[in-house]
Write a sequence for this structure.
């Protein structure tokens, strides 16, 4: 089937809309619907109206997962054998390690757009930095995208010092250079932009179904959130990560998410909470308070998007899929890493103070802080699985996921089947009434490896 033939495939008039939401480094137990204590009423309501997947698997890191989501094939086939930031001399530029979504695949956005869908995106891309690899060149009609894998959530890394260090983020607005407006919070602004696209489409009378992609950068480090949201969690985590892990596991058992005899694995890579000095506990508890606020704020913005769809009268025709890109981040992070530089990753970075970074207790969570929450909290958040992001254990690759909306008969049902992020692209095409072509843009493309999840 040629691109022309693929373009001739048109989704039927009653084809569903799609809203795909991706959380960044979210823990399996963070959402209330998966045993968490963080306030996530909007995501919980969706999950409990649909079907929760307890066996949904991804890659252990970010861009490999996103490449499989977009392509429906293994991340090596799609060009992201590992994250571009981790490529070494032996792999850089080799087939399967191009470091971007390659031309052996057609993205799900390209295929849906060819089939008559409006394709909209706001959030993190992480699949290529050059114009021919950006969202605008890979099928998205409208997009506001962060090209790299992380950025300051308040836009405080866009000044001269961060640019000189090679650490400033690259944003694109429909393919044109852009910035995250100063003072805006990432999750708020991404939701603003997606709602704007949806509102403009509704006002114009555009009758095409839409594929809306909302890949948040929350709750990825650096841990930062609005002060009023952080304040909600003051003191909540003073008992420590072992206590939180036990609390969440008990709740998971009550929800039927895990077996009644499930036990947590031993704590790895982290000191027992009881061995920490009081000042260390205060810092660690503050980190988790900020992390919880990030998840909370993401949920608030999901609620805003859902409210917009309902106001437009398009919610009832929308299939919603939510999942995390990998397990929670367990590294100790206190400053930017050279591997995320644009340019030579071997060049030394300026000291954190020269970048305006202040990781003092009272500043953690503010725009000028730069921390992760470390292995203790990460293992609490990955319970009941073993280890965290970066590992090919369940803690790194099994993520919270659910489907809801049009035609999803769930009512809160829990599905334990072994699923894979490669299943997403063929599932969307199946619901859209489209077939994957053998060729696209004048050349052969790889067939989907995933399977449709449509009953």
């Amino acid at each position: 089937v040629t691109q022309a033939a693929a373009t001739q495939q048109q989704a039927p008039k009653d084809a569903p809309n799609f809203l795909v939401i991706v959380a960044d480094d979210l823990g399996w137990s963070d959402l209330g619907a998966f045993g968490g204590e963080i306030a996530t009423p909007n995501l919980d309501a969706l999950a409990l109206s649909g079907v929760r997947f307890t066996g949904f698997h991804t890659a252990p890191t970010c861009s490999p997962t996103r490449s499989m989501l977009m392509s429906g094939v293994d991340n090596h086939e799609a060009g992201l054998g590992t994250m571009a930031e981790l490529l070494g001399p032996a792999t850089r530029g080799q087939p399967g390690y191009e470091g971007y979504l390659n031309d052996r695949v057609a993205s799900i956005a390209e295929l849906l757009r060819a089939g008559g869908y409006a394709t909209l995106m706001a959030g993190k891309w992480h699949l290529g930095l050059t114009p021919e690899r950006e969202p605008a060149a890979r099928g998205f009609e409208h997009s506001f995208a962060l090209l790299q894998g992380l950025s300051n959530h308040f836009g405080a890394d866009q000044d001269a010092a961060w640019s000189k260090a090679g650490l400033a983020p690259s944003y694109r607005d429909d393919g044109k250079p852009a910035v995250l407006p100063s003072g805006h919070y990432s999750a708020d602004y991404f939701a603003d932009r997606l709602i704007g696209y949806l509102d403009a489409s509704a006002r114009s009378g555009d009758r095409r179904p839409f594929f809306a992609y909302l890949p948040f950068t929350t709750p990825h480090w650096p841990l930062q959130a609005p002060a009023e949201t952080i304040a909600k969690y003051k003191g909540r985590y003073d008992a420590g990560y072992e206590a939180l892990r036990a609390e969440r596991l008990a709740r998971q058992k009550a929800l039927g998410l895990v077996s009644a005899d499930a036990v947590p694995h031993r704590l790895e890579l982290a000191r027992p909470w009881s061995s920490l000095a009081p000042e260390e506990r205060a810092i660690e508890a503050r980190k988790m308070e900020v992390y919880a606020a990030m998840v909370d704020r993401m949920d608030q913005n999901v609620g805003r998007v859902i409210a917009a769809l309902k106001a437009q009268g398009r919610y009832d025709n929308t299939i919603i899929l939510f999942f995390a890109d990998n397990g929670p981040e367990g590294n100790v992070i206190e400053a930017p890493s050279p591997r995320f530089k644009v340019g030579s990753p071997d060049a030394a970075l300026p000291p954190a103070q020269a970048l305006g970074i202040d990781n003092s207790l009272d500043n953690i969570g503010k725009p000028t802080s730069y921390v992760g929450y470390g292995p203790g909290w990460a293992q609490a958040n990955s319970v009941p699985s073993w280890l965290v992001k970066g590992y090919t254990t369940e803690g790194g690759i099994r993520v919270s996921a659910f489907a809801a909306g049009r035609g999803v008969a769930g009512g809160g049902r829990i599905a334990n089947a072994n699923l894979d992020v490669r299943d997403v692209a063929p599932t969307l095409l199946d619901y859209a009434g489209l077939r994957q072509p053998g060729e696209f843009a004048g050349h052969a493309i790889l067939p989907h490896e995933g399977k449709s999840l449509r009953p």
Remarks:
- The radius of gyration is 21 Å.
- Residues 1-5 have pLDDT under 50 and may be disordered.
